[in-house]
Fold Cytochrome-c peroxidase.
Amino acid sequence: MNKRHWIIILSISIFIFACKKSEIIQEKIETFLGFQKPANFPEPVYNFTANPVTKSVFELGRTLFYEARLSRNNTVSCGSCHIQSSAFTQHGHDVSHGIDDRLGTRNSPPIMNLAWNKAFMWGGGVYDLDLQPIVPITTHEEMDENLDNVLNKLRALPKYTALFKSAFGSEDITTSRFMKALSQFMVMCVSSNSKYDKVMRKEDNASFTQTELDGYNIFKEKCSSCHKEPLFTDGSFRNNGLSLSPVKDQGLYLATLLASDRYKFKVPSLRNLNYTAPFMHDGRFLTIGAVLEHYSGQVQNLENLDPILNQNGKLGINLTETDKTKLLAFLATLNDESFINNRLLAEQ
């Protein structure tokens, strides 16, 4: 056998090996592992005992999440206002745009790490993830539909009777099954692979730069009481001193009717800020820099202002320009590119 033949055989062998390696990698990507708690995260609060994540139910939930038939005129899906490339927010819109391009009054919050949430929506009122989808489906400015119509539309499609049978063992499309499937998709939207996470878990020799470390220390001193690690929210509702908008959204008060809850909104996570602008419940700030400006010099002494923002008559948080620069460097370590590119969560 001459040299040329050996080269051909070697080339074919390398090609076959590369193909097999590619198949192995692809198989690993497509292997469904179910819900996995990140090592640096606390125990989730979602009741997985009542709704254990399985591949078939998750895939049904993913299909439903991107299904426009959940809206009255079949034009708006959950994924319309919660776009994966924007960490499941409606990037660029101050408030949500729903059916017939109707405008809501609040910014679309990210769908991220919801398995650790005890309350949902900017203004509360929903305390069970399995019930949360009812709000956008029935809200006039969002999907403007009712659940009975949604289920009847799904029942008329062989695609869905087959998916429900695969997921639950029968073709019955019920409210409970519908909600549990959507919940399984949402609890799988876990963002936990930012640089911060890798530093905390001591993965890949990751470490903060000096500027990032300085920013982390400033964060722990001045921000962490509300934005608790590792989720970067404590899940509470607080009044952070925003000037009242023309709509005068009263926040948590609308759910509880308690005067002490007026103008309180859910503390958002600080993860993935690179993808989720604009910021605050009404999307009034286009940049994180503007958010820091608010806290350092624009906090209003409103009814129910959080005491943290009113220390001995001094409003806001004392931040120098150097502090802000370092904080921005640290906050950038919370961006999780793998989350916004996770194929498992994308429309199939």
Remarks:
- Residues 55-190 form a domain with the Cytochrome Bc1 Complex; Chain D, domain 2 fold (CATH 1.10.760.10).
